[in-house]
Design brief:
two-stranded antiparallel sheet; calcium ion binding; mainly alpha
């Protein structure tokens, strides 16, 4: 399913802005950040594990929606119209995946994740922690699906709806814009959160 570029641009702009504000909060806290990391409760660690659980539930709901709509999709197919379901979270996760598996090999390498994380201001150690957390089956590799399963949806934040509507009302969704994410910043923030440094 193609998401209109104006909507995708708005969604990606919000995700980029959230990542930038998280980074600003991390860097402005300075020494406080290390103390906060030591006092972090479980809600601020295991971000990947939480995302994997949320994404498993979302996949289950998507499968149910597809099954419920199968007859309608088949009827539309009879008219030459291809219909399917997708989510904005999947579009977001797929865009991030392109940054770490640009050739579509089906596997995210440690090096490609490390390059993105360090380009966004994270460290090699944080990238390694993130990679290990993403390896759901413990085989030492991160498949494209494991990567996507490990990415939290930015659309579950309390302010997302307000931000999206405000951006659409202000003309923030330019139809001519090519939507893109700041993948390195987003992945570096995720690595820092997973390492307990955010």
């Amino acid at each position: 399913m193609q998401v209109p570029s104006s909507i995708a641009a708005a969604l990606f702009n919000i995700a980029n802005a959230d990542a930038a504000s998280q980074r600003q909060a991390m860097s402005s806290n300075g020494a406080e950040a290390s103390n906060t990391a030591l006092q972090a409760d479980e809600s601020s660690t295991n971000v990947v594990l939480s995302a994997q659980g949320q994404n498993a539930l979302a996949a289950e709901q998507a499968a149910k929606a597809s099954a419920a709509n199968a007859a309608s999709f088949a009827k539309l197919g009879g008219f030459g119209i291809k219909a399917s379901t997708t989510s904005f979270a999947d579009v977001y996760q797929s865009q991030l995946l392109q940054a770490v598996d640009p050739n579509g090999s089906g596997t995210v390498t440690e090096d490609s994740l490390e390059q993105q994380v360090t380009a966004g201001g994270g460290t090699k150690a944080e990238a390694d922690t993130l990679y290990k957390a993403m390896d759901e089956d413990g085989d030492g590799k991160v498949s494209d699906q494991e990567f996507k399963d490990s990415i939290p949806s930015p659309f579950n934040t309390p302010d997302f709806g307000k931000e999206f509507i405000a951006q659409q009302m202000s003309g923030g969704g330019d139809a001519a814009a090519t939507p893109s994410l700041d993948s390195s910043l987003i992945l570096a923030n995720l690595a820092m959160q997973e390492s307990g440094k955010a």
